[in-house]
């Protein structure tokens, strides 16, 4: 039996009296490979931040492996949708990824950390740039570095918010094959707008627009998807094969 | 030229110039890369409240400046987390409230307040042995804290949200960083005074940042740059008999301009 990696119970959150997530109940099992999809402003990034514990819900419960999010930070890998930093910041690619291997106060980096950074940079095909200052990178290269920073922790839960934004097709392929390797070792959650592609890759999906329309195996998601985007399935998925999505 | 070093007050002045450059190089690097220059300006002006308190209580104003600058650092750090008060507004308030408190204390102190001017604009030539001891202690404290918390400081300066995900208590680390700024301000008051402190924190790091993108090198080179320009400023102020704080700031600014154009 799988144990529960993430459990959200009746989670509500408002921004300035404007409800963003309403009564979310969601369980994600260990080693699930799930995509969260939904329209802009649907609350996907907000949900991700609640799971990470950097936003507190107004009401409801969040449990990560049965514990509070603040106590499970060592288990989480995260790619933010948008990283805000000063582009002239004096840090190179290697150091950026290394910062993902944080062990706690007064604990320096060791040999294993350096090996893990090299490996993560290879996985995103950025090793040759390791000594570059980050402001010399292109947008897509920068995104790859932040993907490396997320996976370098060897997390139990990998949460990626729009990982494929500004990534070229070749790297997208490489990225999905990397995820299919990683999915045996960790729970993976992707937030994505590329519904067509993501449905062929993940095992489960959650359809979110302020409330959760559907969550479960991809094959059963057809009705949920139509309801979520209020348009025919073919448009949402750009005609992905119907053997993946069965309509009821 | 070396003749001027025969005076003990000149020796102390040069030692002070070297000591403050250490604080400036290290803390100033963070101030510049995290873009908290005007925030540091608020902390230094707020320290004037402590200087007034020192006059009022008859204590060394440098010592009473410490709690004032630390408290202002904590207040700004606490406001940082509140989205409904902008940091910019907080800077303006703390800046002026600190100065106002200082002026009140000086009003309340009977008699004439001597060398008040020197706390506003600095007077490196009147640095005493006990000032030097305070500077050494604060320098050691700054180096020690930066050494111990370098990973956390880097993380919150670069990407604060991500540092939370890593499990760093980013609010506390930010307050610690601001406290370091506060301590550096105290080190610098004797040399350039509360009004000019910000130039010494910002300019050496701003000069060297054009030449390196490695944080450790940046700190080291900023320290050396600071030592060079403060000593040069000190020398010039002695030769031309002009206010040392002002000359040091102008020499630094000229150094920045030159470095910008030859780059
Ligand atoms: N810091 C904030 N302050 C106020 N409102 C916010 C804030 N962050 C998000 N919101 C609001 O919350 C809602 C959900 O935002 P969120 O970023 O979670 O959406 P999303 O599903 O990730 O959208 P996208 O697909 O565009 O990334 C939006 O209506 C947005 O306006
Ligand atoms: Mg989003």
3D structure, described in words:
The complex is a heterodimer of chains A (248) and B (263). With 248 residues, chain A is an alpha/beta fold. Chain A contains 8 helices and 9 strands. In chain A, the strands form 2 sheets. Chain A has a 6-stranded mixed beta sheet, with helices on both faces. The mean pLDDT of chain A is 90. Chain B is mainly alpha-helical and 263 residues long. In chain B, 82% of the residues lie in helices and 0% in strands. Chains A and B meet through loops of A and helix 6 and helix 7 of B. The complex binds adenosine-5'-triphosphate and magnesium ion. Magnesium ion is lined by residues 44-45, 81, 161 of chain A.
Give the termini distance of chain A in whole angstroms: 29 Å
Beta strand % of chain A: 25-35%
> If you compute it from the alpha carbons, what radius of gyration of chain A comes out, rounded to the nearest whole angstrom?
18 Å
Strand order, largest beta sheet of chain A:
5-6-7-3-8-9
The percent of residues in helical segments of chain B reads: over 70%
Shape descriptor of chain B reads globular
Largest sheet of chain A: 6 strands, mixed
* Contiguous uncertain segments of 5+ residues of chain B: none
Helix and strand topology:
The complex is a heterodimer of chains A (248) and B (263).
Chain A lengths: L3 E12 L2 E12 L3 E5 L6 H9 L6 E6 L11 E4 L13 H6 L12 H13 L15 H13 L5 E5 L7 H14 L4 E5 L3 H7 L2 E6 L1 E7 L4 H8 L3 H5 L11
Parallel strand pairs in A: 3-7, 3-8, 5-6, 6-7
Antiparallel strand pairs in A: 1-2, 1-4, 8-9
Chain B lengths: L7 H26 L3 H21 L3 H20 L6 H22 L7 H6 L7 H30 L1 H6 L4 H39 L6 H26 L3 H19 L1
Helix pairs in contact in B: 1-6, 1-8, 1-9, 2-3, 2-4, 2-8, 3-4, 3-8, 6-8, 8-9, 8-10, 9-10
The site of adenosine-5'-triphosphate has 12 residues of chain A, from α1.
Compact summary:
The complex is a heterodimer of chains A (248) and B (263). By secondary structure, chain A is of the alpha/beta class.
């Amino acid at each position: 039996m799988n144990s529960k990696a993430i459990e959200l119970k009746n989670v509500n959150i408002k921004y300035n009296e404007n409800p963003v997530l309403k009564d979310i109940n969601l369980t994600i099992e260990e080693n699930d490979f799930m995509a969260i999809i939904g329209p802009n402003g649907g609350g996907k990034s907000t949900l991700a931040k609640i799971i990470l514990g950097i936003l507190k819900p107004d009401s409801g419960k969040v449990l990560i492996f049965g514990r509070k999010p603040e106590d499970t930070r060592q288990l989480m890998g995260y790619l933010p949708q948008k990283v805000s930093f000063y582009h002239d910041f004096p840090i190179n690619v290697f150091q950026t990824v290394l910062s993902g291997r944080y062990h706690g106060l007064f604990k320096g980096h060791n040999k294993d950390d350096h090996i893990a950074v090299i490996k993560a940079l290879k996985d995103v095909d950025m090793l040759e740039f390791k000594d570059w200052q980050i402001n010399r990178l292109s947008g897509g290269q920068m995104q790859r570095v932040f993907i490396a920073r997320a996976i370098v922790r060897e997390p139990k839960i990998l949460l990626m918010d729009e990982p494929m934004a500004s990534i070229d097709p070749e790297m997208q392929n490489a990225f999905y094959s990397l995820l299919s390797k990683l999915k045996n070792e960790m729970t993976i959650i992707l937030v994505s707008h590329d519904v067509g592609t993501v449905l062929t890759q993940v095992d489960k999906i959650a359809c979110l627009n302020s409330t959760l329309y559907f969550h479960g195996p991809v094959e059963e998601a057809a009705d949920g998807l139509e309801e979520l985007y209020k348009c025919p399935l073919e448009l949402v998925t750009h005609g992905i094969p119907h053997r993946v999505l069965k309509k009821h | 030229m070396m003749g001027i070093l025969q005076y003990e007050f000149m020796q102390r002045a040069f030692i002070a110039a070297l000591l403050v450059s250490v604080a400036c190089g290290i803390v100033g690097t963070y101030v510049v890369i995290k873009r908290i220059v005007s925030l540091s300006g608020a902390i230094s002006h707020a320290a004037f409240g402590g200087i007034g308190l020192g006059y009022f209580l008859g204590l060394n104003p440098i010592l009473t400046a410490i709690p004032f600058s630390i408290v202002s650092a904590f207040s700004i750090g606490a406001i940082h987390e509140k989205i409904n008060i902008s940091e910019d507004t907080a800077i303006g308030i703390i800046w002026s409230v600190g100065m106002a408190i200082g002026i009140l204390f000086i009003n309340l102190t009977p008699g004439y307040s001597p060398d008040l001017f020197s706390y506003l604009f600095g007077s490196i030539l009147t640095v005493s042995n006990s000032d030097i001891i305070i500077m050494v202690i604060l320098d050691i404290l700054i180096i020690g804290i930066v050494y111990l918390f370098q990973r956390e400081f880097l993380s919150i300066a670069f990407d604060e949200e991500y540092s939370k995900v890593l499990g760093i208590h980013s609010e506390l680390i930010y307050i610690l960083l601001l406290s370091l700024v506060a301590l550096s301000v105290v080190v610098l008051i004797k040399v350039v005074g509360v009004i000019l402190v910000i130039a010494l924190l910002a300019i050496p790091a701003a000069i060297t940042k054009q030449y390196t993108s490695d944080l450790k090198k940046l700190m080291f080179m900023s320290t050396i740059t600071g030592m060079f320009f403060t000593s040069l400023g000190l020398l010039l102020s002695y030769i031309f008999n002009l206010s040392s704080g002002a000359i040091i700031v102008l020499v630094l600014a000229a150094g920045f301009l030159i470095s910008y154009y030859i780059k």
